[in-house]
UniProtKB/TrEMBL annotation:
Family: Belongs to the glycosyl hydrolase 70 family.
Reaction equations catalysed: [(1->6)-alpha-D-glucosyl](n) + sucrose = [(1->6)-alpha-D-glucosyl](n+1) + D-fructose
Polar residues biased stretches: 68-81, 88-106, 115-139, 205-216
Native source organism of the sequence: Leuconostoc inhae
Protein's UniProt name: dextransucrase
Ranges of the Cell wall-binding repeats in the UniProt entry: 1175-1195
Signal peptide: none
Taxonomy of the source species: Bacteria, Bacillati, Bacillota, Bacilli, Lactobacillales
Residue ranges of domain Glycoside hydrolase family 70 catalytic in the record: 337-1161
Function of the molecule: Production of extracellular glucans, that are thought to play a key role in the development of the dental plaque because of their ability to adhere to smooth surfaces and mediate the aggregation of bacterial cells and food debris.
GO molecular function: dextransucrase activity; glucosyltransferase activity
Length: 1526
C-alpha cells in the first residue's frame, strides 16, 4: 500500500504574487506563461546521468574549481559523440540528435591531473565524503560552473556565525530522514574533461545583478557565434528570429555555450553570477531557550493528526509577561508557531510587514527579502515583545488568533493560489481543480485499498468494453468530496442509503404510503458502475421487478447516463434500468432547437432525417413489441439546455470573466430576464427553438418513455408553478392527446417538397411525418379492433421557416386501413403568429376538418402547409387526431394486459411501458419560497389531479436533501439539493428549499392517491462541505484523476476537510445493513464487477473520512499548510502516546540552528530556516530562483537526471523552468514549470498552444505520427487544431479541434460552409464517391456538392441533395438556372418524353423540364407542357412561343386543319397555329374566314381580306361570290 514518497518543492510568499523561475527572469522560451502559483513537486530524489537526448547541453562540473576567474581544464575520459542518435519511432519525420556539439574550449581526453593553486583534483576527489553522490551528466558541452570563494572564511553579517571549511551541525536528524526516504540511485562522478568558467560570488549585495556585456561570459562580437540569428545592433547582441523579431526569454546553445536573451529587452545576458547572498546566519538568540517548546508531545501543540500546520499554536517553555519578564508557561499558555519560527525567509518578511500594519512593529519601513536575516530576526523579537505586552493588557489571545488566522489565509502557500485553480474555459474540474488522495505511510488513516477511478459502464472492468463512444465514458472527479464507490464498505453504505429512500415513510413515520417507489441514478458516468448492479439487485430482491412487467413498471429506475456506451452496457446487464436516449435528444437539438445559422451565417440546424433513425429505436417502421431497448427520452432537463444557457447569457451579457457556473443571485436574476424575454422572440438568441415540435414527437413516439420537464411547462425561475411558460398550452394539449390517441405501431418518413420558385435553393425542403395507427394496428395494413378507429395520431413537422409548397406538392399521411374515409381534426396547428391548440372536437371549426381517402390517406397541399417563424415554431407543426373519439377515451395499455417475455430482462419495451410518462417536476432555478404555500412539496400535493390529467405515471421529485450553502458551485448557490452534507436529512426540523419532511411525505402520499408513482433522486457521487480536518496525501488532478503537471501538489500532505456528515448520517448511516442482509443475503455474496469482491456491511459509515473518498475539489487550504522543512523535505511532527516520532525546527528544541547559502571545499550548500542542511532537494531563494542539492548536500549544474526526469541548471545553479532550449541543429527542447524536461509528451503554453516532444525530448514539426495518431505541427512547434492543411502537392488534410488528430473517414465543414470528406488516409476526396452507402460528389476544390447539379465526365447530370448531399433518385429538383429536372432511379437526369407518377412530361437535351412552352418531336408534332406542373396538356388551348395559339387534343398533340372545339369551328395551319383574323382557302378552293379574336369561323358576315377586298361569308362559313340580299 506504500507509494513512493514525494515532496513539493515550490512555494509562494505573497498572496496573489506572480512568480517567475529565476531572479534575473530566467524563464526562457518561445511562449512564457506566468502563473499565480509556483509549480510542482519532486520525489525524494535519485540523481544520475542524464540520457543523451539534449544537444549541446552543458555538463555539470563536479570537480573542484579554481577560486580564480579563469578557465580550468578538468581531466576525464571523453565519451563518444554522436552515438545516441535516436529517432522517436512515433514521429514520421526524421529528428537529428547531434551529440558531438562543440564546447567553448577543447575537451581534454588525457588522464593527467590538472592542479589549481590550492589543491589537486585528485586530492579533492579523495577528500569527498564516502557516501557523497556526484553526478553523471551529459558529456557534450561546456558549462560555466561556480567556484569556491576567494577566502576560506564565510562572510558574516550581524549575528551570522562564521564557519571555516566545516559544515554546520546537522545533528542526528539526518539519520531519521533517511528512514523517510526511498533509496536513491548511486551517483557516479563525471569523468568528462570540460571547459568551465566560474560564476562570481557576490558578497556585498544581495541583489547580485547580472552584468550586461560581462566579458567573462559574453563575446563582444556577435559574428564570433556560428549563428545567423545572433546579431549585434547598436553594440548590443540579440537573437533575431526568421521573422526579424528579437526573441525574448529565450535560450539557445551556440558553440557549446548557453546563451540567454532576457525577457524585457531580448539582450544577451550573463548567467555566471550567483543570485543569492552567501553566508550563514544564526537562528539562535536570547529568546531561543524561552521560545523552545515545553515538550514534543501533542499536549504542547495544536495539530492535525500529529502534524503541524500554519495555524498551529504551541506551548513555549516561558512566556514574556508584559513583554519584560520571562515566566514559566502554564498548560493554558499557547502561542502561535509563526510568532517565533517561519518556514522560509519570505514568510518571515511577510509576517513582519503584516504585523507592522497592525501597529505591532517598531519599524518605520517595510521589510524585504534583501534585508539581512539577522535584521529580520531582531525585528521578530521586537514584535514578540509587543504581542506579549498586548496579551497582558487584554488578558486573552482571541485577537491574536484572529490576526494570525488572517495572516495565514493571506499567504499563497496557505491558500488557493498555490492549488493551481483553473477558471473559465480552462477549468479542468467544475470547482477549479481536484485533489486525488493517494496512499502513504505518513497518512495511514486516509489510505485505501480501492479508489478504482473512472470505472464507468464503459470502463467498469478497468479497460474499455465498449467503443460507440471512444472515450472512457466519463470521469470520477465531478464535485466536492468524491465518494469512492469502488470501496466495498462505501458500496454497502450506498445500498443502506437507497434502502432509506425507498422505505422513507416507513422509517421516518411508520407510513409505507410515503415511501418512494423508484430512483433516478444521478451522474452515472461519474460513479463506479457497480452501483447500477447493486441497485438493480436490490430492486429485484425487494420488489421482484424481474418477475413481470406490471411490477417493473411500478418501480421505474432511470439513469442519467450520457455516454453513448451506456445504453449498450445497460442492455448487456439485462435492461434493469431505463437508459436515456441521448442520441434522440441530440437529434431533437440539432434538427429542431438550434438556430438556423450561427453568427457567421453558417447553417447549423440539420435536416429532420436524424429524428427517424438517430435513436435507440429505428422508427422508419416500428411495428413490434419487446424488441426495442427500453429507454426514456427528453429534450431538456434541470441541468441540460437550461443552466448551460444561463451560463452562456451570464458570460456574454453580464460578466465576461465568469464561467457561468458560480454566479451571484443577482446575476441569475439578470440572466433570467434575458432568458424569459428571449423565449418570446421568433429569432431567439439563447433559448431553444421549436419546443412544441420536440414534444409532439416525444409524446407520440413508440418504444420510449417520455420525460416531461417542469421548465417547459412553467418558467424555470419564479415561485413553483407560479408562471406558465410560452409552451404550456401546446404541451398540455399534447399530453392530454397522448392519453386519448397515442397507441399502435408507428411509421416515420420524410417527404421532400419541390417548393415554389421563391424558395432558396439551399433551404430544407423535407417534411417529417409520423403516424401512430391506434391500438390493435401495428402497420398501415392492419384493420385493428373496435378501439383502433377512434385512436391513432399524426404529426407533420418542418424546420424551415421559409418553406413554401408548389401547386403540385403534396404530403400524404397513410393513416392505415382502419382509418379509411374518416374525419380528422387538428389538435395543434401552426399559424403565422404562433400555435393554435384544440383539446376537443367542439373546439375545431368544421372547415379545418379533413377526411381520409378510400385508402386511408390524409392529403395536405400548399393551402395547408407553409413555413413560419414565430416564438413557438420555426418551420411547421401540425398534429391530427380522429374525430368523434370519446372524451374519456384512454389509449394506454395496462401492464396487466401485456404478455410477459421471459428473457432475463427486467424492463420490456411494449405498449405497457410506452404508456408511462415521467414528469421531472422541478427546475434548478425556481425561487426560494417566501411563504409556506410556495414550497414545491406543498404545491405538488395540491396539484395531483392536474398531473393525472396529463397522464403522468411517475413523478421525479427534486432532490430533497438539505443543501450546502458554501457557494463553490452552482448547486450550492441555488440550493437545488444536489450539494448536500447530510444525505439523510430530507427536511427534518427546518425546511429545505422544497419543504419539510412532513410536507415531503404528504406530497408522496397525495401522488400515490392518484395512482402516480414517486421517484427519488439518488446522488451517490459527492458529499459537500464537511467540516472535520484530516491530513491526507494528495495530488492535484483533473476530473479523470490525472496529475496536473502545472501543480505543486504532488503526493504532498494536505489538510483536507473530509470528516463529518451530519446528525442524520450518524443516526442512519449503516443502520439498515443488518436488516437488509437478513432479508436479502445474496446481495452481500455477489461479487461486484469492478472490484471482484462483494459489498462489505461490516463497517457502518456514521461519519465520513478520507478513506472513503477518492479525493475532493481543491479546498483553498494551500499546498504547504502542513508545515515541513525544505532542506530535508520532512514534515514537522509531534510525538504521540504510541510514537516518539517528533521532528521540529532546531530552534524549537533549543538546538544550534543556522540558515543561508555557504560554500566549502566541495561546493555550495544551503541550510534551512529550521537549521537543517539541504540534501536530495530543491531549494528556492528569496528571488524565487530554484536550485538542486544532491545527496551530499551540494548544488548541481548542467543537465541532470533526477528521479528519472531531466532537469537543466544554468552555470549559476538556477534551474530552467517553463523554458525552451534550442540546440545548434535547431532542435528545440522544453523544461516545464517544475523544471522537468518534457519527453514523449505534450505541453500546452500560456496561449493554449500545444507542442509535442518526442522520446528524445525534441519538439515535433510538420506531419507527425504521435503514438499512432497523425498530427501536424507548425515550424514553431505549435500543434495545428481545427485547421485545414494543404501540402505542397495540393492535398488537403484536416486536424481536429479536440485532439488535433488527422481526420479520417469523416466529413468536415469547410470555412465557406461547404463540406469535405477525408478518406481513410486522411486526404480530402474528389469526384464521385460512395460513402456509407450514399452516392456523393466532391468538386476539384474538395467541396461536397449539395443542393445543385453536377455533370460528370460522361456529360451525365446528377443532383445532390441540399441536406444530405446524397445523389437524388426518383425525384424532381430545381437546377441552378431555375429550371427543373427529374432524376431517375439511377440518379441520372432524364431527357425527352417521360411519364412520371402518371404525368406526361418532357425534358430537353440539357435535361431541363419543359414548362410553359411547346416542344416539337421528330415527327414534327407539337406538345405543350403546363407552366406550373410541367405536365403535357390535353384538350386545352395554349399560346405558343411565337404568340400564336394552338390546341392540344386528348392525346396531347397539337391539332391541324378544321376542328370543332367546344362548339366552335376553328382552323389550325400546318404549323399547328390557330388561324385568327384571316381567310383560309382549302384544297377545293373554298375560302373561310376566322375571327381575329376568338378564331371561330365567321358566318353571315363581311370580312376584309388581306388584299383589302371585302368578302361575304355565308351561313356555312364559305365565301360567297355575290353579296346576299339584305
Amino acid at each position: 500500500m506504500k507509494n513512493q514518497e514525494t515532496t513539493c518543492r515550490k512555494k509562494l510568499y505573497k498572496s496573489g504574487k506572480l512568480w517567475v523561475t529565476a531572479g534575473m527572469s530566467l524563464i526562457i522560451g518561445l511562449g512564457m506563461s506566468v502563473q499565480q502559483v509556483s509549480a510542482d513537486t519532486t520525489h525524494y530524489v535519485a540523481v544520475k546521468k542524464a540520457k543523451n537526448t539534449l544537444q549541446d547541453a552543458p555538463v555539470a562540473a563536479t570537480k573542484k574549481i579554481s577560486n580564480t576567474d579563469q578557465n580550468v581544464s578538468v581531466s576525464s575520459n571523453q565519451t563518444k559523440g554522436a552515438t545516441d542518435r535516436v529517432q522517436d519511432n512515433t514521429l514520421t519525420q526524421p529528428v537529428s540528435n547531434d551529440l558531438s556539439a562543440q564546447t567553448a574550449v577543447p575537451v581534454s581526453n588525457d588522464k593527467k591531473t590538472i592542479q589549481d593553486s590550492n589543491n589537486s583534483v585528485a586530492n579533492q576527489n579523495k577528500n569527498t565524503d564516502s557516501n557523497a553522490n556526484t553526478v553523471q551528466t551529459k558529456d557534450s558541452l561546456a558549462v560555466n560552473a561556480p567556484v569556491k570563494t576567494p577566502t576560506d572564511v564565510l562572510p558574516t553579517t550581524g549575528q551570522s556565525t562564521t564557519n571555516s571549511n566545516n559544515q554546520p551541525n546537522t545533528d542526528t536528524t539526518n539519520n531519521q530522514l533517511a528512514n523517510n526516504q526511498k533509496d536513491n540511485d548511486a551517483v557516479t562522478k563525471n569523468d568528462t574533461s570540460v571547459s568551465v568558467k566560474a560564476p562570481t560570488e557576490d558578497h556585498g549585495s544581495s541583489t547580485a545583478p547580472v552584468k550586461e556585456n560581462n566579458q567573462s561570459e559574453i563575446k563582444k562580437d556577435s559574428n564570433q557565434y556560428h549563428s545567423k540569428n545572433i546579431q549585434t545592433i547598436d553594440g548590443k547582441t540579440y537573437y533575431i528570429d526568421d521573422n526579424g523579431q528579437a526573441k525574448k526569454n529565450f535560450t539557445t546553445v551556440v558553440d557549446g555555450q548557453v546563451l540567454y536573451f532576457d525577457k524585457e529587452t531580448g539582450l544577451l545576458s550573463a548567467t555566471n553570477d550567483y543570485q543569492f547572498k552567501q553566508g550563514l546566519t544564526s537562528q539562535n538568540n536570547s529568546f531561543t531557550a524561552h521560545n523552545a517548546v515545553e515538550n514534543t508531545t501533542k499536549d504542547s501543540f495544536t495539530e492535525i493528526d500529529g502534524y503541524l500546520t500554519a495555524d498551529s499554536w504551541y506551548r513555549p517553555k516561558d512566556i514574556l509577561v508584559n513583554g519584560k519578564d520571562w515566566t514559566t508557561s502554564s498548560d493554558k499558555d499557547f502561542r502561535p508557531l509563526l510568532m517565533s519560527w517561519w518556514p522560509d525567509k519570505m514568510t518571515q518578511v511577510n509576517y513582519l510587514n503584516y504585523m507592522k500594519t497592525l501597529g505591532l512593529s517598531n519599524s518605520s519601513v517595510n521589510f524585504s527579502a534583501n534585508d539581512d536575516q539577522s535584521i529580520l530576526n531582531q525585528a521578530s523579537q521586537d514584535i514578540q515583545v509587543k504581542i506579549e505586552q498586548k496579551i497582558s493588557q487584554e488578558g486573552q489571545t482571541n485577537w491574536l488568533q484572529h490576526d494570525i488566522s488572517d495572516f495565514v489565509d493571506s499567504q499563497s502557500n496557505w491558500n488557493i493560489n498555490s492549488e493551481y485553480q483553473t477558471t473559465g474555459n480552462d477549468k479542468d474540474h467544475l470547482q477549479g481543480g481536484a485533489l486525488r488522495y493517494v496512499n502513504s505511510d505518513k497518512t495511514p488513516d486516509a489510505n485505501s485499498d480501492y479508489r478504482l477511478l473512472n470505472r464507468t459502464p464503459t470502463n467498469q472492468k478497468g479497460y474499455s468494453s465498449y467503443s460507440i463512444d471512444p472515450t472512457q465514458g466519463g470521469y470520477d472527479f465531478l464535485l466536492a468530496n468524491d465518494v469512492d464507490n469502488s470501496n466495498p464498505v462505501v458500496q454497502a453504505e450506498q445500498l443502506n442509503w437507497m434502502y432509506y429512500l425507498l422505505n422513507f415513510g416507513s422509517i421516518t413515520n411508520q407510513d409505507a404510503d410515503a415511501n418512494f417507489d423508484g430512483i433516478r441514478v444521478d451522474a452515472v458516468d461519474n460513479v463506479d458502475a457497480d452501483l447500477l448492479q447493486i441497485a438493480s439487485d436490490y430492486m429485484k430482491a425487494a420488489y421482484g421487478v424481474d418477475k413481470n412487467d406490471a411490477t417493473a413498471n411500478q418501480h421505474l429506475s432511470i439513469l442519467e447516463d450520457w455516454s453513448d456506451n451506456d445504453a449498450a452496457y445497460v442492455k448487456d446487464q439485462g435492461n434493469n434500468q431505463l437508459s436515456m436516449d441521448n442520441k434522440l435528444r441530440l437529434a431533437l437539438k440539432y434538427s429542431l432547437t438550434m438556430p438556423l445559422t450561427d453568427q457567421k451565417g453558417t447553417a447549423i440546424r440539420s435536416g429532420l432525417e436524424p429524428l427517424i433513425t438517430n435513436s435507440l429505436v429505428d422508427r422508419t417502421t416500428d411495428s413490434t413489441d419487446n424488441i426495442a431497448q427500453p429507454n426514456y427520452s427528453f429534450v431538456r432537463a434541470h441541468d441540460s439546455e437550461v443552466q448551460t444557457v444561463i451560463a452562456e447569457i451570464i458570460k456574454e451579457k453580464i460578466d465576461a470573466n465568469s464561467d457561468g457556473l458560480t454566479p451571484t443571485i443577482d446575476q441569475l436574476e439578470q440572466a433570467f430576464k434575458i432568458y424569459n424575454a428571449d423565449q418570446l422572440k421568433a429569432n431567439k438568441e439563447f433559448t431553444q427553438f421549436n419546443i412544441p415540435s420536440t414534444y409532439a414527437l416525444l409524446l407520440t413516439n413508440k418504444d420510449t418513455v417520455p420525460r416531461v420537464y417542469y421548465g417547459d411547462l412553467y418558467t424555470d425561475d419564479g415561485q413553483y408553478m407560479a408562471n406558465k411558460s410560452p409552451y404550456y398550452d401546446a404541451i398540455n394539449t399534447l399530453l392530454q392527446s397522448r392519453l386519448k390517441y397515442v397507441s399502435g405501431g408507428q411509421k416515420m418518413s420524410m417527404t421532400y417538397m419541390m417548393g415554389d420558385n421563391s424558395m432558396a435553393t439551399q433551404g430544407n425542403r423535407g417534411l417529417l411525418t409520423s403516424v401512430r395507427y391506434g391500438k390493435g394496428a401495428m402497420t398501415a395494413e392492419d384493420k385493428g379492433t373496435a378501439d383502433t378507429r377512434a385512436q391513432g395520431i399524426a404529426v407533420i413537422e418542418g424546420n424551415n421557416p421559409e418553406l413554401k409548397l408548389s401547386a403540385t406538392d403534396q404530403v400524404i399521411l397513410k393513416m392505415g386501413a382502419a382509418h379509411k374515409n374518416q374525419a380528422y381534426r387538428p389538435a395543434i396547428l401552426t399559424t403565422k403568429n404562433g400555435i393554435v391548440t384544440y383539446l376537443t372536437d367542439a373546439d375545431v371549426d368544421q372547415a379545418l376538418v379533413k377526411y381520409t381517402t378510400d385508402n386511408g390517406e390524409l392529403v395536405f397541399n400548399q393551402a395547408d402547409i407553409q413555413g413560419v417563424a414565430n416564438p413557438q415554431v420555426s418551420g411547421y407543426l401540425s398534429v391530427w387526431v380522429p374525430v368523434d373519439a370519446s372524451n374519456t377515451q384512454d389509449a394506454r395499455t395496462s401492464s396487466d394486459n401485456v404478455k410477459y417475455a421471459k428473457d432475463n430482462q427486467t424492463f420490456h419495451s411494449n405498449a405497457a411501458l410506452d404508456s408511462q410518462v415521467i414528469y421531472e417536476g422541478f427546475s434548478n432555478f425556481q425561487y426560494f419560497p417566501t411563504t409556506e404555500s410556495d414550497y414545491a412539496n406543498v404545491l405538488i400535493a395540491k396539484n395531483t389531479d392536474l398531473y393525472k390529467s396529463w397522464g403522468i405515471t411517475s413523478f421525479e421529485l427534486p432532490p430533497q436533501y438539505r443543501s450546502s450553502t458554501e457557494g463553490s458551485f452552482l448547486d450550492s448557490i441555488i440550493q437545488n439539493g444536489y450539494a448536500f452534507t447530510d444525505r439523510y436529512d430530507l427536511g427534518f426540523n427546518t425546511p429545505t428549499k422544497y419543504g419539510t419532511v412532513d410536507q415531503l411525505r404528504d406530497a408522496i402520499k397525495s401522488l400515490h392517491a392518484t395512482g402516480i408513482k414517486v421517484m427519488a433522486d439518488w446522488v451517490p457521487d459527492q458529499i459537500y462541505n464537511l467540516t472535520g480536518k484530516q491530513i491526507v496525501t494528495a495530488e492535484r488532478v483533473n476530473n479523470s484523476g490525472i496529475y496536473n503537471e502545472n501543480s505543486v501538489i504532488n503526493k504532498i500532505l494536505y489538510a483536507a476537510k473530509t470528516v463529518g456528515g451530519g446528525d442524520y448520517q450518524k443516526l442512519y448511516g449503516g443502520a439498515f445493513l443488518d436488516k437488509i442482509k437478513s432479508l436479502y443475503p445474496s446481495l452481500f455474496t455477489t461479487n461486484q464487477i469492478s472490484t471482484g469482491v462483494p459489498m462489505d456491511p461490516s463497517e457502518k459509515i456514521q461519519e465520513w473520512s478520507a478513506k472513503y473518498f477518492n479525493g475532493s475539489n481543491i479546498q483553498g487550504r494551500g499546498a504547504y499548510y502542513v508545515l515541513k522543512d525544505w532542506a530535508t523535505n520532512s514534515y514537522f511532527q509531534v510525538s504521540s502516546a504510541d510514537k516518539n516520532n517528533d521532528f521540529l525546527p532546531k530552534q524549537l528544541t533549543n538546538q544550534i540552528s543556522n540558515t543561508g547559502f555557504a560554500s566549502d571545499d566541495k561546493g555550495m550548500t544551503y541550510f534551512s530556516t529550521s537549521g537543517y542542511q539541504a540534501k536530495d532537494t530543491f531549494i528556492q531563494d528569496e528571488k524565487s530562483n530554484w536550485y538542486y542539492f544532491d545527496k551530499s548536500g551540494y548544488m548541481l549544474y548542467g543537465l541532470q537526471t533526477i528521479n528519472n526526469d531531466n532537469y537543466y541548471f544554468l552555470p549559476n545553479g538556477i534551474e530552467l523552468q517553463d523554458a525552451y532550449l534550442s540546440d545548434s541543429k535547431g532542435n528545440v527542447y522544453y523544461f516545464n514549470k517544475q523544471g522537468k524536461q518534457t519527453v514523449n509528451n505534450y505541453f500546452m503554453d500560456s496561449n493554449k498552444n500545444w507542442r509535442y516532444f518526442d522520446q528524445n525530448g525534441v519538439m515535433a514539426r510538420g506531419l507527425s505520427t504521435v503514438k499512432e495518431h497523425v498530427q501536424y505541427f507548425n515550424q514553431d512547434g505549435t500543434q495545428v487544431k481545427d485547421q485545414f492543411i494543404t501540402d505542397a502537392d495540393g492535398k488537403l488534410r484536416y486536424f481536429t479541434l479536440d485532439s488535433g488528430d488527422m481526420l479520417t473517414s469523416q466529413f468536415k465543414k469547410l470555412a465557406d460552409g461547404s463540406w469535405a470528406y477525408f478518406g481513410v488516409n486522411g486526404l480530402a476526396v474528389k469526384g464521385q464517391q460512395t460513402i456509407k452507402g450514399q452516392n456523393l460528389y466532391f468538386d476539384d476544390n474538395y467541396h461536397q456538392v449539395k443542393g445543385h447539379e453536377q455533370v460528370d465526365n460522361q456529360g451525365i447530370r446528377h443532383f445532390y441533395d441540399a441536406d444530405s448531399g446524397d445523389m437524388l433518385s426518383n425525384r424532381f429538383e430545381k437546377l441552378t438556372d431555375g429550371s427543373w429536372a427529374y432524376f431517375d432511379a439511377t440518379g441520372q437526369a432524364v431527357k425527352g418524353y417521360q411519364t412520371i407518377k402518371g404525368q406526361q412530361l418532357y425534358f430537353d437535351d440539357d435535361a431541363h423540364q419543359i414548362k410553359g412552352h411547346e416542344t416539337v418531336n421528330q415527327q414534327g408534332q407539337i406538345h405543350f407542357y403546363d407552366a406550373d406542373s410541367g405536365e403535357m396538356i390535353s384538350n386545352r388551348f395554349e399560346k405558343l412561343a411565337d404568340g400564336s395559339w394552338a390546341y392540344f387534343d386528348a392525346t396531347g398533340q397539337a391539332v391541324k386543319g378544321y376542328q370543332t372545339i367546344n362548339g366552335q369551328n376553328l382552323y389550325f395551319d400546318d404549323n399547328y397555329h390557330q388561324v385568327k383574323g384571316r381567310a383560309v382557302t382549302d384544297n377545293q378552293g373554298i375560302a373561310r374566314y376566322y375571327d381575329a379574336n376568338s378564331g371561330a369561323m365567321v358566318t353571315d358576315h363581311f370580312e376584309k381580306l388581306s388584299d383589302n377586298a371585302w368578302r361575304y361569308f355565308g351561313s356555312d362559313g364559305t365565301a360567297k361570290v355575290s353579296q346576299p340580299n339584305v
